[in-house]
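Q: Structure for this?
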Amino acid sequence: MWIVTWVVIIGVISFLFIQQGNKPKTGFILISDVYGSFDLKKQLEQKFTITKNARQKIVDSLAFELKLLAKKIDAEKSEKSKSKTEEELYNTKRQEFYQRTQSFNEDNKELTKQYDQEILSQLNQYVKDYGKENNYQYIFGNDGNGSLMHAQEANNITKEIIEYINDKYKGKK
Amino acid sequence: MRKGNLIAIVFISLLFACKNPNGMNGVESESGGIGNGTMSKQSLTPGEYVKWVRDEQHGLKKEKTIEDIVFSAQYKPAEYAICTEEKKGKLEDTLVKREKKDLEGMQYFDFKIGLRKGEGELLKYDLSSKEEYDKRVNYFSFNMQKDIQLVDGQDTIPCSLFHFERAYDVTPNSVFELGFAPGKNSTGNKTLIYHDNIFRKGIIKLEFENKDLSDVPQLETEK
């Protein structure tokens, strides 16, 4: 008799256990933490800084040349031997300076936009992959704008997601 | 009653063992890998060899899907390159040795970019203008090479051999044949890196484990 009782108890426990295991889960992540810790974001940030600094160097050297030319023209003005060609050169350089500055600013903006898009593409894909692999029905993103007002800390999977997305990015998974 | 408790404990233990996906199953699959390692010592015919190398389970082919684009890389051992080039059921030992010598000193990969849905032409995907199409063709043909690198152990190696195989509407993917000089210390893993500027999917990394690269079967040849 006791064997039957045990079998029934174990059967019920197993059923509940399997049910619990198959139950779709819900979790949330702190978006800013995930975004900030994503290796692709760090790498592209570095790449952007290098490009931006290289462009800034070009603009700075143009500005320096302009300053020198302006000084020279000013000196010649006081000596009353003002050269027309130097003034023309100054105007051309000044125009180049403004054009370059404007175009670099636009290029920097475009590059930021491109890199943001690249980061989000991979981030979204990897979070999706994590959800699928780990049987999550929903993974909410908490970005502090009020879309997620309350969640139990036990459902915070930020750490796990960061580890997963970085492994995925490295091509390890 | 004591016997009953023992049965219960054994039953529950079995239940846990079956449920844990990283438990026995993990060990099983790992030992399967070791099994494959033993398999790899075998000699395979050219057909079997090609099939083995292309099997993702053996770790010489890696794939990554980012939204609607699939990036994949196939590591090509010299024997594999010879088999696919010759397309014969049997290969002579002298021919394999000769061709292997020609291929020495480089490491080869096929890199493929394709559409996840498997239809349409990659070059025309999500296109805004004819100019953009021409830009893509030009980039894939000439400029993409500079965006590809191989991290081999501690060394970062630029892509020195590059060939774009154009598909012309035939397949929804584009294939690029890549070649890299060997790293100074080739005992580490290898990571193929490509910065995708066309579909804006970011830096794509595909890692090949050294144990997989060195665990390739032998090619059966005829004397």
